Amino acid sequence: MIRFVTRARIAQLEHDARAAREHARQTSGAANEAFGRHLRELYAATDRAECAEAATSEVGVVLSLAMEELSAAQQELLLKDIEIRRLREELAGASMDGRTLSVLLHNGEPHAIYASREDAYADTATHGVPAGTRWESARERPPFDCEWLCEAFIYNAASNGFRRASLPAPKPAGEAA
Questions:
Q1: How far out from the chain centre does Cα 41 lie?
Q2: Coil/strand/helix, residue 163
Q3: Which of 13, 39, 62, 134 has a 20 to 30 A CA-CA distance from 171?
Q4: Tens digit of pLDDT for each residue in 143-165?
Q5: What distance in Å separates the CA atoms of residue 24 and residue 29, rounded to the nearest whole number?
């Protein structure tokens, strides 16, 4: 079969082919732009995920250190609680009138309570204070000026409480506040 193609038909086909190529070029450009946006979003999401992973690992390390510190603090509290219970039981078994307790002060703050001064000295030895160290009394210097200070307290039945066994030395009138 023979078909006759006219110039108008060829011109129309060429016009349609140019339009199709232009449309394909525009579609390809739009696809390239969309792909570029997709890649930028992918890189940004990857960066955020890597930052979140690094932050998570840092938080994990900090949390593990905090848990170790908490465990050590709980262990210390448990030991102090046991010692307090032991001292309470010991004190409950005997008459309190005239009994003394020794309070170990570290830089002016209470550190521990002991049944005897010797127990307090033994405890400071575990903290690096040599056994032959000369102990200062609160009469010589204020408690907050001494690194370690052992103060005796005597039970006073009249007041149903403890009082300091030795009172601080009175200040001369010229040094009064």
A1: 37
A2: strand
A3: 134
A4: 666 777 778 877 776 776 666 66
A5: 9
Left, alpha or beta for 108 (phi > 0: left; psi -120 to 50: alpha)?
left
Question: CA–CA separation, 45 vs 157, rounded Å?
Answer: 74
pTM of the model: 0.36
- The partner residues of 154 in beta bridges, in order of sequence, read 100, 163
CB contact at 8 A, 104 and 120? yes
Give the chain's count of helices (H) and strands (E). Answer: 2, 4
Residue 103 token pair: 């309070």
CB count in 10 Å sphere of residue 83: 15
Cα–Cα distance between 138 and 89 in angstroms, integer? 29
Q: What is the pLDDT of residues 80-99, one digit of tens each?
A: 999 888 888 876 766 556 66
